[in-house]
Structure formats: C-alpha cells, structure tokens
TrEMBL record:
Listed Gene3D superfamilies: Aspartate Aminotransferase, domain 1, Type I PLP-dependent aspartate aminotransferase-like (Major domain)
Name the record gives this protein: Cystathionine beta-lyase
Catalytic activity reported: L,L-cystathionine + H2O = L-homocysteine + pyruvate + NH4(+); an S-substituted L-cysteine + H2O = a thiol + pyruvate + NH4(+)
Coiled-coil blocks: none
NCBIfam families: cysta_beta_ly_B (TIGR01324)
Listed Pfam families: Cys_Met_Meta_PP
Keyword annotations of the record: Lyase, Pyridoxal phosphate
Species, as recorded: Skermanella cutis
Length: 391
C-alpha cells in the first residue's frame, strides 16, 4: 500500500512471505560466501555495492531491515551498522577528509563527542561544538570547509529541542551535509527528511530492538547520491551487523509502534508526578507544556519516547545514592529503549564545551519501560522517601 500508516508499514514492510514458502518472517541468512553460476554474474555483482554478493555487503535479512526503516522515515535506502555509535562514525567518515570542519551540537551523545574530538582530530578534521539552540544563527559558524552539521534533537541528556529546519537550511545553503541522531524521535515521531536532513542515524539497539538484547545501528539516506557515498564507506570500513542481531531488530520493529505508545504515556505519567514532588526542582521533557523546547517539539514531532530527566533540589551524594540504590523496578544501567525501566545519575556539565550547563542540584535520567505506571510511581515514591531521609 502506497499511503499506508506507520503501524501498517511496521507490520508489513520488508516482508515477502510468498518468496519464502509462505513463512511470515524473513529468514535469517548466516552468510559469508555467496556463489555465482557464471563468470558474467560474478563480475556484474562485483561492480555494485548493492545486492547480495558477500555476507559483509548485505543479505536478504539486512535488506529487509533496511527497507523497513527507510520506508518508515521516507528516505531512499538505509545501511545497517553493528551499533548506534558505529552508525554515527560510519556516517561521519563518509563525508569528511583531512582539512575539513564539522559542526556538532554541544548536547551530543558522549561517545559521539569523543569520536569527534579524538578520532576526527587525529585524522585532521576539526570538530567544533555549537549551542544546540543556535537555530538559523548557526550560519555564523559555517566556514568554506564545513562539510557536516550534526544534530541530536532532543539531546539524550539535557533534552534541548533543536530548530532542525532552520539549521538544515543554513547548512544546505553552504553545501554542508546535515546529519541527525534521531534515536529519541524514532522513525515514528520525527521525520528528518521532511525538515531538510540528509542522513538520519539511529541506535537501533534502543527502540527498534526494544528488548535490551542486541547491539545494532542503522543510517537512512535521503537520496541515492547520499546513499551511494554512505554505502561505499560502510563497505570500505568493513562495518556489518550480525544476522541474528539484525533479525532481532526486524522483529522488534513489528511491535515498536505499540510499545512506543506505552513508553510515551508512562513517561508522561511519571514526568507529571515528578513535577509535583518537593524533592524535584524541574523535569526535562519536551512534551510537557512548560518545557523550554515544547513549542518546537509540538511543531516538528508527533510523539515522545520514554526517555527524560529530572533535576533534584540540592542534596548530598549520599542522598542520591540512597534514592537510587534501593530501586526495585528501575534498573541502574546505560542504554534505554528496552522494555524495562532504567534510572541513573548524569553529569552533563562535564561534557559541555561550547555552552555551560548549570544546575543547582544533581540530575537523574529515567527511561519509562512497559511496567504499570502506578508500580513505577510507587518505586520512585519509596526512593524519594529514602533521599529525603538521607538528606
């Protein structure tokens, strides 16, 4: 169906049961060697970065996953990577060379920042971090050698919503490639190519896989030209995800719409409850009407995922530990997007270079899982009681 809704695309895209004996799910191809019947067929396959010619280049399993993601986002084609960070680094390296300059939002994911300030620097590429709220004013930072403008909206620690269309317009005017880490927005809640973006990057480990049991990344290119350059770089770097992880990503996509609606609703329930708590100074969630980024979120997004943060009122490290150490339902660990709720202390002030992040109290990041929101609220209530007792 041409104009199918996202839930219908999630259910059917990338599937061809009648090509696989009527089996609903695409098979998992474990492959390295691919055989060809003739010299002509072998040589023809060798001239393309597409198709099935070697396991690392792609298989019907990876192609089914990529086709589903690309259709969801409205892009040309996608490229799979073995992790979200691998997707980010593969995309960046495809469009920069020694002597180039890239602009990266100051609210970017920590490992992306480290790659830009360390690896790219060693390769002779200058990464400059910019205020995530720059909007159209970013044009003042663009140089003749600026090749990439990198966004992450909202930032996954501090949740600033960027004016993506304004930034993209300024970047495109100067001939720079626009990339966005769209993991928070997901292909369902933010459509990058409708806002001027060239490449949309996801840690598919998060909501696409959805079950905290696989590492996976994916990059969607908006045009054939961008995809060709991206795919060539991916092949040259040798980045490829394992077939079983790709299958878990494809399986996770089938239920992502239903899961995201529950993640969204539960996160908003928790955020509103936390807003009323005396221990909490503020809640950072773009879907809340009083959030600084709410107007942009409402303009550009169609939903919100389960990830947000809070700033506690000033308290001791011992009080924060008392709060977090005794949680029963919220696990303390990195990543997010799985079925389980997570919580951890964060320190965004240590990561900023272009801007200053100021808070009076400690910050906590939460991911709302698929548990009953009342049970999660009860867990938080007990934790905040421990915090108050230890303060």
């Amino acid at each position: 169906m041409k104009n199918a809704s996202p839930d219908t695309i999630l259910t059917h895209a990338g599937n061809d049961p009648h090509a696989n004996f009527g089996i609903v799910n695409p098979p998992v191809y474990h492959a390295s060697t691919v055989l060809f019947p003739t010299v002509a067929a072998l040589e023809e396959a060798g001239h393309s970065f597409d198709g099935v010619r070697y396991g690392r280049i792609g298989t019907p399993t990876s192609q089914a996953f990529e086709a589903t993601v690309a259709r969801l986002e409205g892009g040309f084609k996608a490229v799979t990577a073995p992790s979200g960070l691998a997707a980010i680094t593969t995309a960046l390296l495809a469009f920069v060379s020694a002597g180039d300059h890239v602009l990266v939002t100051d609210s970017v994911y920590g490992p992306t920042r480290l790659f830009c300030s360390d690896m790219l620097k060693r390769l002779g590429v200058e990464a400059e971090f910019y205020d995530p709220l720059a909007g159209a004013a970013i044009e003042r930072l663009i140089r003749p050698n600026t090749r990439v403008v990198f966004l992450e909206s909202p930032g996954s620690l501090t949740f600033e919503v960027q004016d993506v269309p304004a930034i993209a317009a300024a970047a495109k005017q100067a001939g720079a490639v626009v990339m966005i880490d769209n993991t928070w927005g997901t292909p369902l809640f933010f459509k990058p190519f409708d806002h001027g973006v060239d490449l949309s990057i996801h840690a598919a480990t998060k909501y696409m896989v959805g079950h905290s049991d696989a590492m996976l990344g994916v990059i969607t290119a908006g045009t054939e030209e961008v995809w060709n350059r991206l795919k060539r770089n991916s092949v040259q770097l040798g980045t490829c995800a394992g077939p079983d992880d790709i299958y878990l990503g494809l399986r996770g996509l089938r239920t992502m719409g239903a899961r995201l609606r529950q993640h969204q609703d539960t996160a908003l329930d928790l955020a509103r409850w936390l807003q009323a708590r005396p221990e909490v100074a503020r809640v950072l969630h773009p879907a809340l009407p009083d959030d600084p980024g709410h107007a942009l979120w409402r303009r550009d997004f169609t939903g919100a995922c389960g990830l947000f943060a809070i700033e506690l009122k000033p308290c001791s490290a011992a009080a924060v530990a008392a709060f977090l150490d005794g949680m029963e339902l919220f696990g303390m660990g990195y990543s997010w997007g799985g079925y389980e709720s997570l919580i951890l202390p964060i320190h965004p002030e240590k990561l900023r270079t272009a801007t200053r992040w100021r808070t009076d109290g400690p910050m906590i990041r939460l991911h709302a899982g698929l548990e009953d929101p009342n049970d999660l609220i009860a867990d938080l209530d007990r934790g905040l009681a421990r915090l108050a007792a230890a303060a």
